[in-house]
Amino acid sequence: MTPGHGIPKLMVVGAHAGDGEVMAGPLVAQHAADGGTATLLHLTLGERGHPSLPGAEYGPQKREEAQAAAAALGADVRILDYRDGELAASLEAKHAVAQIIAAEQPDVVITHGPGSFHRDHAACHEIVSEAVFYAGLADLWPGRPRHIVQAVYFAENWEDKRDFAADLYIDTSRGHATWLQALRCYELFRGGLSTFPYVRYYEALAVVRGAESGTDYAKAFSVPPEARRTVVPGLLGEIPLQVTTGSSIIAHDRDTQGSRASGPPGDVPLT
Q1: Residue 109's domain is classified under what CATH number?
Q2: Rounded to the nearest 5°, which phi and psi values hold at 183?
Q3: What pTM was computed for the model?
Q4: Residue 157: closest CA among 106, 196, 210
Q5: Using an 8 Å Cβ cutoff, are 221 and 166 in contact?
Q6: What is the SS3 assignment for 180?
Q7: In a domain, 263, yes or no
């Protein structure tokens, strides 16, 4: 936890600079605004994504854009030097990310889900999933800290949609405007480099997930299958796993910040 605050430390790991921002940027923005610590970790720059510039020229531009976007969101940023399009789920890469996790000590790690058609995204998922395990081993790197991550969430990404299940909704209404401004740090998201409408897509997705969860804007996350369990001592207290219905979403009052009051799917671990 962040010293003196009791706020979870957040780390978002993306295959390319820009992935983490579209997947969890509004959450990062409002988490930082609430006094939390957030780190964006990019495994590659995504330097081969420009239609005309070679990677040697576009890479430095992406590095500057990633640093500017992180600053706009209020996050720290770390960038590894793996090559765009060649990211491999090697033991070396898993150990490299594990050492960063052990050093940064995030409570929550967000990354790509398992169902991606993009090879770098799929590799990132495997790297991070196993790095979380390696980071918790006591004797892997003698003299270095170990760290147990409390939760791993898989973010929603248009290239990672296969078998995605929205297990967790987090209201990101307060971070939405800051997130949109941060995206503009990237030429890719300002338009002109790709025919895919990134900002329109992810903003529309935030509206849809907000409508589904009773907020203005939200991000949805999947969790590992082993995390999909709820244990209760009985049914004498609050009823667990309450059914989400149309009336349960729309029939409650607005709060003072303009976002609908907390409704399904229940408590969330990050603000």
Answers
A1: 3.40.50.10320
A2: -60, -30
A3: 0.88
A4: 196
A5: yes
A6: helix
A7: no
- 45: three-class secondary structure by DSSP: coil
Assigned domain for 49 exists = yes
The rounded distance, in Å, linking the Cα atoms of 182 and 189 is: 10
Query: d(Cα 202, Cα 231) in Å, to the nearest integer?
Result: 34
20 within a domain of the structure (yes/no): yes
In a structure prediction context, what are the per-residue pLDDT tens digits for the chain, which is 271 residues long? Answer: 644 458 999 999 999 999 999 999 999 999 999 999 999 999 999 999 999 999 999 999 999 999 999 999 999 999 999 999 999 999 999 999 999 999 999 999 999 999 999 999 999 999 999 999 999 997 887 887 889 999 999 999 999 999 999 999 999 999 999 999 999 999 999 998 999 999 999 999 999 999 999 999 999 999 998 888 888 888 877 777 777 666 666 554 444 444 444 443 444 456 5
Quote the number of domains for the chain: 1
103 occurs within a structural domain: yes
Q: How far apart are the first and last CA of the chain?
A: 14
Range of the domain at 96: 10-226+234-250
Exposed/middle/buried for residue 119 (C-beta within 10 Å: 0-12, 13-18, 19+) = middle
C-beta of residue 185 within 8 angstroms of C-beta of residue 68: yes
User: Cα(234)–Cα(62) distance, rounded to whole angstroms?
Assistant: 52
Question: Which parts of the chain fold into alpha helices (H)?
Answer: 19-33, 55-73, 91-104, 119-135, 176-183, 187-190, 198-213, 246-250
- Joined together, the tokens standing for residue 58 give 């576009």
